[in-house]
Specification:
single chain, 213 residues, mainly alpha, 70% helix
Length: 213
């Protein structure tokens, strides 16, 4: 017998709670599995059925659509998945999950912070600075943490640029000495490093790491 919407919601809640507990215990693999299973139940529920269950759900931030129980849970699950992927150093998946959370609620500050961090680690420095700069404009409670993260990204990128410039100068000097004008450009491109802030070893502040209950 197929599960009704309310039963799916209850199972989704249980899976999410199990994922939260696993994350807090440092078991990110188990957390991600539970979050994935929760989404299998929750994403299959029709919006109309959900609105019938929660007819008086409030409208947040002037959005026209109704914020339902399932919307809130799915948003938190995606944000929590992003936290798990950050812990695992899987930056692309962290970025994807953060974007999904923000598609549900653009004012999810934890998701925005994780998006900026992931962008920096993937080498999208300007995008990361913009993401975190936009977050600062929203006046998050952890504004000082966001400011510190922006500073760390800038410092790491400046150090990376300094090392790259030194390496490129060495290649240019070597190529000039060899008087091989046909290899100069190729040599530079061949040794060009990806632009990354390289801050993977920096732990997130407590308020950002914690999953959303």
């Amino acid at each position: 017998m197929p599960l009704d919407s309310q039963a799916k919601i209850e199972i989704g809640k249980q899976k999410k709670d199990a994922g939260d507990q696993a994350f807090k215990a440092g078991e990110t693999k188990d957390a991600l599995r539970n979050y994935h299973e929760a989404l299998l139940y929750l994403n299959g529920i029709e919006k109309s059925a959900m609105q019938a269950i929660v007819p008086n759900a409030p409208i947040a931030d002037g959005e026209e659509k109704m914020k339902t129980e399932i919307d809130l849970m799915v948003e938190k699950i995606y944000a929590n998945q992003s936290a798990c992927h950050i812990k695992n150093g899987n930056w692309r998946r962290a970025l994807e999950a953060a974007d999904k959370a923000l598609s549900k609620n653009e004012n999810n500050h934890k998701a925005a912070f994780r998006k900026g961090k992931a962008q920096a680690e993937l080498g999208y420095i300007e995008r990361a600075q913009k993401t975190l700069g936009d977050l600062l404009k929203k006046g998050p409670e952890d504004a000082s943490i966001v400011t510190a993260e922006i500073a760390r990204i800038k410092a790491a990128d400046a150090e990376r640029s300094k090392k790259l410039d030194k390496k490129l100068r060495g290649f240019l000097s070597r190529d000039k000495a060899k008087e091989d004008d046909g290899r100069t450009s190729a040599s530079i491109l061949e040794h060009e490093e990806p632009r990354s802030a390289s801050i993977a070893e920096i732990d997130e502040p407590l308020g950002i790491v914690e999953v959303e209950d």
